[in-house]
Amino acid sequence: MRAYDVVIVGGGLAGCRAALEIARTNEKLSVAAIAKTHPIRSHSVAAQGGIAAVLQNVDPDDSWEAHAFDTVKGSDYLADQDAVEILTRSAPDVVIDLEHMGVLFSRLPDGRVAQRAFGGHSHRRTCYAADKTGHAILHELVNNIRRVGVEIYDEWYAMQLVFEEGEAKGIVMYSLLDGSIEVMPAKALLLATGGYGRVFNTTSNDFASTGDGLAMAALAGIPLEDMEFVQFHPTGLYPAGVLISEAVRGEGAYLINAAGDRFMASYAPQQMELAPRDITSRAITREIRAGRGVHPDGSAGGPCVFLDLRHMGREKIMSRVPFCWEEAHRLAGVDAVEQPIPVRPTAHYSMGGIPVNVDGRVRCGPDGLTAGLFAAGESACVSVHGANRLGSNSLLECAVFGRRVGAEIAHYVGTRKLPEFDEARYRDRARDTVRELLNRSGSTRINALRTAVQDCTSEYCGVFRTAEVMQTGLERLQALEQQYDDVFLDDKGDCWNTELIEALELRNLIVVGKTILASAIARRESRGAHAREDCPKRDDANFLQHTLAYYSPAGIEIGYMPVTIKRFPPKERKY
Fold it and tell me: Is residue 9 domain-shared with residue 51, that is, in the same domain?
C-alpha cells in the first residue's frame, strides 16, 4: 500500500475541509482520505439547520463577542474560551469562503446570504441552505478535494491506529469490496470520524456513527475528553428518532403539550422554543413525565409532545423547511401543514471526544501532545461546546477547525520523515482478528447484542441521570461486553461482508458506552447536557474542569484538565 504525507480518516465536512486546506497550503503534499462510506454519504449531509457566523446581514448589532458569549454561556461555562474566540472570529471568513466555493446558501431579496434565529443565540446569525445546509456544503467540498487531487479510499474501514511510543505512524484498514487488509503509513494522521450516536437506541445519527475514531484512540491509550456530555436534540421525530431540525423552531414553530400550551414559557420564558437544546430536552422530558405528553393521535398521556407548524402556512413551510416536512410525511404520515408533528428528545451530538489543542494536535494527557496525530470535527474535543452545543455551531466547528488543522498539518509534515514500523505485524494481527470473527461458533447474534448495548446506554444514561442508575448501567454494559466473545457471523465471505463490519463497530460502541457511563458517574454535578437528579446543582468549585477518561479492559481511569477562561467568568446560566 502506498505511503502518504497525510492520511485523513473520515470523509465528512471536517476531514474534507482539512484535506482542501492541506492542498491549498502545500500542493506538493500527497493526501489520502479514507471513508467507510462514500464521502457524500457521510453524516455531515444530515446537518440541516445552518452554520452560525456574524455576517450582520439581518442583524447589524451582532458581533463576534456576542457570538462567543452565547457559545460560552450555552456550554455552561465548560468551553475553552481561547478556542471559542477562534471559532467565532473566524466564522464570517469561513462562510464567505464556502460561498465562493459554490455552496448554495439561501438568499435575502437583495442577494446576500440569509440568516435565521437559532436556539441559544442572541442574534439572527445562522446562515442556511433551506434545511439541507450540511448537504450543500459537503457536496462542494468533495468536488473541491477531487479537483486538487486528494486520493479518496471510499468504502474502506479503519480497523486500528498504528500508534507506538506516543507517535502515530499509520492506519490499518479493511476493504469492504474484497476483504483485503492494508497498512497505510503516513507522516501525519487526522481522525475526523464523526460521532457515536448509535451507542443509543434512539438517535438522529446515521448507522455509520459508531464512534470508530474515538474507540481507536482509546484502545491506543489516548484519553477521551468530556464523554459524559451527550446532546439530546429536543425534536426527534417520534417514533423514528430522526431529526426535525431546530430550523423549524427558528422559523417560528411552537412546542405544545397535551393541553395545547406552549410549555416552554414555564422553563425559558425569554427564549421560549429557542432555548438551548439541553434545557429544551429536559423541559420536554418533564412534560412527558408529568403526564402532559401526547400520543401521535392527539390523546393525552403519551410519550412525546407536538411541534406545531400549522400557523406558519404552507408557503413558508415548503420554502424554508421542506426536508423536515418530507421526513415527517414519509416516516410518520404527518402533513405538517395540517397536523402537528410528534417529537421527543433523541441522542444527537457528542460534545466530548478525542482531546486536542486549538491546532488539532491530539493530547496524550493534560499537558503533553502526541506526535503525528490530529483530530477535528465531532470526533474531537477542542472544546468549543463544553457541556452543551448551540445549534449551527457544529458545522461551523468543522469548517473553522478543519481549515485551521489542515493548515497546521501542512506545515507540520514539511520537515517530518515517514515513520518506520513493522507493517507486516499489524497486517497479520488484523487478519487474525478478521479470521477469528469469521470462524467463531458462538450463539449470540450481532443485532441482539448491539440492541442490548444501545438499550442499556439509553436506559441508564439518558436525559436525566443518578449515580445508582448509571452504576447499574455500567455493570450491565460490562456484562454485555463479556458476550462479545460469543458473537457469531453467518456471512463468511470476503465480498461486502457488512456483518463483519457490524461486529467491529459493536466493539467500538461498547468501548464508547463504557467511557460515557464512567465519566458521567465521576462528574457529581449537573452541567449542560449532564443532568444529575442526585446532584442537581452546578459545582464550579470541584467540576469546572474537563474530564479525561483513560480506557483499559480492566476499567476506566478518570482524570481532569483545567478549563481555559478568558473574557467570560462563570455565572449562573439563565434564559
Answer: yes
pTM of the model: 0.94
The answer, yes or no, to whether residue 524 has pLDDT greater than 80, is: yes
pLDDT at 119: 87
* Total domains present in the chain: 3
9 and 123, same domain (yes or no): yes
Q: Are residues 91 and 38 in the same domain?
A: yes
On whether both 68 and 142 belong to a single domain, the answer is yes
Q: What is the pLDDT of residue 131?
A: 84
DSSP annotation of 178 reads T
For 232-280, write each residue's pLDDT tens digit.
999 999 988 888 989 999 999 999 999 999 999 999 999 999 999 999 9
Q: Tell me the C-alpha distance between 85 and 173, whole Å.
A: 37
Which residue segment(s) compose the domain that 427 sits in?
423-537
Q: Which of 17, 116, 277, 320 is catalytic?
A: 277
Chain centre distance of CA 67 = 21
Asked if 243 contacts 237 with a C-beta cutoff of 8 angstroms, the reply is yes
Strand, helix or coil for residue 279: helix
Residue 569 maps to a domain:
no
Q: From the centroid of its chain, how far is CA 238?
A: 21
Q: Kindly state the average pLDDT of the residues 423-432.
A: 97
Neighbours of 148 (CB within 10 A): 13
Domain co-membership, 26 together with 133: yes
pLDDT band at 287 (very low <50, low <70, confident <90, very high): very high
Among residues 97, 84, 85, the alpha carbon closest in space to that of 137 is found at 97
- Per the CB < 8 A criterion, the answer to whether 45 and 135 are in contact is yes
Spatial CB neighbours of 473, under 8 Å, sequence gap ≥ 6: 456, 457, 459, 460, 461, 517
As a whole number of Å, the end-to-end CA separation of the chain is 55
C-beta neighbour count of 275 within 10 angstroms: 24
The question of whether 277 is a catalytic residue gets the answer yes
Answer yes or no: do 239 and 358 share one domain: no
* Residue-level pLDDT at 575: 87
For every residue of 236-270, DSSP letters joined together read EETTT--B--HHHHHTT-EEE-TT---GGGGT-TT
Mean pLDDT of the region 371-392: 97
